[in-house]
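Chapter summary example: a protein plus zinc ion.
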Amino acid sequence: MRRCSVCLHRNRVDIDAALDTGEPYRQLALLHGLSRSALCRHWCDHGFLLARIDSALEDIHSGRVPAYDSLAALMVDLAHAFEFEPKGGWADGQ
Ligand SMILES: [Zn+2]
């Protein structure tokens, strides 16, 4: 199984944060010595989820958001990403 070169990169968290803000693949590829296609594959396959998890953990560690709220929002994002519908549907209409 081929490993993702972006996930293995020492600046993965910063790269995901930049991708999450819409920074162009080309610019990030040059800056971090990666290919545009690797960045695109990474972001579309799993990078967007890693960025969301990193953001939730940062919120929890900083105390900006109650842990339960941050984890609940993360679970909703993950469920949507994997097209999971909870039994009885979403309580808050998401
Ligand atoms: Zn990856």
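Key point: The chain has a mean pLDDT of 86.
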